[in-house]
Design goal:
It comes from Streptomyces marispadix. It is a multi-pass membrane protein. By secondary structure, the chain is mainly alpha-helical. 82% of the residues lie in helices and 0% in strands. The chain has helices spanning 4-29, 36-58, 64-68, 71-96, 100-108, 110-120, 128-148, 153-172, 176-200, 211-235, 240-246, 249-261, 268-337. The protein is globular. It starts with a helix and ends with a helix. The model is unreliable at 330-341 (pLDDT under 50).
Length: 341
Amino acid sequence: MVNRSDQRTGLLYGFAAYGLWGILPLYWHLLESTSPGEVLAHRMVWSLPTALVLLAVLRRWAWIRPLLRQPKRLALVVAAAAAISVNWGLFIWSVSAGMVLESSLGYFINPLVSIAFGVLLLRERLRPGQWVAVGIGAAAVAVLSIAYGQVPWLSIGLALCFATYGLVKKRILLDGVDSFSAETAVQFVPALGFLVYLSATGQGSFVSGGTGHALLLAVSGVVTAVPLIFFGSAAVRLPLTTVGLLQYLAPGLMFVLGLLAFHEEMPPERWAGFVLVWVALCVLTWDALRTRRRGREQLRKAAAKAAEAAEAEAGADSGAGADSEAGAGTGASAAASSPKP
C-alpha cells in the first residue's frame, strides 16, 4: 500500500509533469525552422547525457545489472522507448504544422483509449458510466471527423502511443530517473546515427543554425528529462485513477495555447466535437470518483464489522475463561469438603 506521504509527493510530481507538458508547445515552436525529424533526434541524443548526469549525482547505478539480466523487462523498456518516440515525433510535427489543438484532443481522448486497452487487452468489464463515456467519445470522434473532413488520425495516434507508454511503464516498475535513463539508452544509437547522416549530407542545422539554435537543441534533453522523470515518479506513487485525472491538465493548457497563442481556427463543428469529448471526460471522472468513494465506504464497513467480530470473540473468550475458573473453584471446594479415606 502507498502511504499518504508518498501520495502527496506523487501529486506534486504529477502536477509538475503535466503542467510542463502543457506548455511544451511554446518550446518546440522556437524550433519550427528545423525539420521535426531532426528535432526528435536531438531530443533523444541529448536526453542520454542528461540522464547520465542525474544518475551520477544520485549515484543510482545499482538497477542496471539486474535489469540487464531480465530479458522480459528489457523488452518492455524497448517497447516503452518505441511508444514514447512515436509520441514525441507526432507531437513535435503537430507544433510545426500548426495543429496544437488537434494534439490537445489526442491527450484529451487518451483516458478513453486507456479504457479500451483495459477491455481489449486486460479483459476488464466496463461499468455503465464508462460505457456512456466511451459512447460519447466515439460520437465526438465522428463529429470531429466531419469537422476535419477525415478521421483525426493525429489525435488518435497520440492517444494510442501515450496510452501504450503508460501501460508498459506501469509494468516495468522502475522509478522515474531509472526508467528515463533506460529508455534514452535505447533511443540514443539510432538517433545519433540519423544526426550523423544529416550532417554528412549537409541537411543538419545544429551548426549552421547559429549558437542560439544549437543551445535550444541541446537543452531539449533537459526539457525532455524533467517532466518525464516527474511523470515516472508520479506513476509509481499514485493509483491509475489519480494519474488519469491529472492528465487533463496538459491538454487543457495545450488547448489554451493553440487557441490564444497560436490562433488556430475553431469552427463551430470543431467546438461541438471538443465539447462532446469534455462531456465524456466529465462522465468518466464522475464514475471514477463515485466508484472510488464506494470502495472506501465498503472497506470502512468491512473494517468496522471485523472490529465488532473481534470484540465479540474477545468477549466470548473472556466469558468462557471466567466460567472455567468458576467451575474449577467449585470443584476444588467440593474436593476439600469430601471425607478422606
